[in-house]
Design a protein that fits this description.
The structure holds two protein chains of two kinds. Chain A is α+β, with helices and mostly antiparallel strands. Chain A has helices spanning 39-57, 63-70, 76-79, 86-89, 92-99; strands at 19-27, 30-31, 106-118, 125-139. Classes of the chains: A alpha+beta, B mainly alpha.
Chain lengths: 140, 271
Amino acid sequence: MVLFPYNAMFSVQPAAAWHTDTYAIKLDDSIIHITAFPYWKKDFLEMSLRNYALYRQQGQVLYMHQYLAANSWLPKEISNKLVPQKKEAIKWPGWYLHYAGYKSRGEHRLDIIHYRLNFEQGKPTIEDSSVILTQQINIR
Amino acid sequence: MRPLNNSITLTAQRRILLILFLECCIILYSGVGFASLYGNPFFSIGVDPFSWLLFGAGIPQTIIAHHWLGSLLSLSIILLLILLIIFPRQYIIAIILFILLFCLYITLTGYLTHRNFQSGMFLVLVPFLFDKNNSRKFAWEAIRYFLLFFYISSGLLKLWNHSFDDITHFSQHLTSQFAPYYVEGNLGFRTSINLYLIQHPAVAYGLMIGATVIELSMLVGFFTRRWDKWLAIALLVFHLANWCVMDIAPIGHLAFICILFLQYENRRWAY
């Protein structure tokens, strides 16, 4: 809920004990660093990437799509505005690069990588990584 | 007595607005304002009527699609905040500012795709929406109780969900908080604290109990205002620890917390 952003935070046990998932974007095999940005920008770059990666992994479907499909009382013209337009949303990686400060012109290969970190030994080790999206991107 | 009371109260209110002003400057400067998100084609909102209201009307999408509009609104927020600091009784300015900050909040939660944002940035303006002294005084009381309930509910939900049944509960949560830092190799004192707490679940468990005690201690505020200053200090410590241990900054919420200091000053000087 908008008015209670802290409410149930950290009250429910995470599903995968001592494992965590995170995402990163690589441009021509070089990882795009986001953690040195000021807090809110870093938070944006982290959370929006995570949600976009999940969106693409799930075939461009968000929870809102499922909710709206099950609750069809909203007029179509309003419900359409509650989810991103698929044709537009696929342009998000280009926007992200620009936002993260990458302005090197020309053709680049962009990969969205899913990492699974394992903390069982008390230190993070990359247990698994997989490319969930690869695309050629032209920065103008 | 009346002019004296009013002038002291307005000074205290100006301090709250000044904190909000600084928070807004930090947020906009860090690059997550309306204009900075220009052209972003992806958002994800929750099942929440407040988000539906604005996104259903296409307001955030329209703002994000026009750079000039985003810049104008961001600039308006800063200018109106300055005006409200100078003229805190001007409720018309406060109403416009409240709408703009509400729009900013909904836009950021939608485009950040992050529910953990800071609602205090617009809630703190609620008392300024009223012209009459009594209405404004009542609104200060109302948002004070809301603030207290906000944290108590968070503590109660931890108890309700049996968060303390497993001593490793908090350590397991901490594994996700700095994951991008580990992937990038950007290590420092906060990642060291994070790793220490992951390696020592009993210490992390104690810290979580401490945090929950702070959240639940807000219950005191329902019975007396005497401890408001200490409740505010406890919340600031809680948020500072949140930033160190969990990488969750309170910027956007500080002015809202500081109303507990204001109530203290009001009780002492104005009421």
